[in-house]
């Protein structure tokens, strides 16, 4: 088994669509105390299992790209990733 490191932190969506493993959004915890520099990410990465490497990418989308967020619900439909709800700022008391 090979492990791959992502630049995303926690609360990201991890799903399979069109044979790729996608890691979308999430929040990143800073090294500063108190969470003052934590941030929500709008990064989209995919892993092609044949190559074993995560790739940052801009993906084709319709409409405006959703705001950076974490801890959301999601679903796939063919080549589409559908995101519902989520947090736009991490509440340190909630996690």
Helix percentage range = under 10%
What letter string, H or E per element, gives the SSE order? EEEEEEEE
**Number of DSSP E strands:** 8
In DSSP terms (H or I, runs of 4 or more residues), the helix count works out at 0
Strand order of the largest sheet: 1-2-5-6
Q: Which spans of ≥5 residues are poorly predicted at pLDDT below 50?
A: none
Biggest beta sheet attributes: 4 strands, antiparallel
What is the typical, i.e. mean, pLDDT? 76
Counted up, domains total 1
Q: What is the overall shape?
A: globular
Radius of gyration, whole Å: 14 Å
Euclidean distance between termini CA atoms? 30 Å
What structural class do helix, strand and pairing data support? mainly beta
Task: Bin the strand percentage.
Answer: 25-35%
3D architecture notes:
The structure is a single chain. This protein is mostly beta strands and 95 residues long. It has one domain (13-84). The chain has strands spanning 13-17, 20-24, 27-28, 39-40, 44-48, 53-56, 73-77, 80-84. Strands 1-2-5-6 form a 4-stranded antiparallel beta sheet, with no helix packed on it. The chain has a two-stranded antiparallel ribbon with strand order 3-4. It is globular and about 40 Å long. It starts with 12 loop residues before the first strand and ends in an 11-residue tail after the last strand. This is thiohydroximate-O-sulfate sulfate/sulfur-lyase (nitrile-forming). Its cofactor is Fe(2+). It catalyses: a (Z)-N-(sulfonatooxy)alkanimidothioate = a nitrile + sulfur + sulfate. InterPro entries: Kelch-typ_b-propeller (IPR015915).
């Amino acid at each position: 088994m090979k492990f791959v490191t992502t630049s995303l932190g926690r609360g990201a969506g991890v799903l399979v669509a069109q044979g790729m493993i996608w890691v979308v959004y999430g929040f990143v915890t800073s090294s500063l105390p108190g969470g003052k520099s934590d941030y929500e990410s709008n990064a989209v990465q995919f892993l092609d299992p044949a190559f074993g490497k995560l790739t940052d990418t801009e993906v084709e989308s319709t409409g405006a790209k959703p705001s950076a967020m974490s801890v959301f619900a999601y679903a796939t439909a063919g080549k589409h990733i559908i995101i519902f709800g989520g947090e736009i700022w991490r509440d340190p008391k909630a996690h």
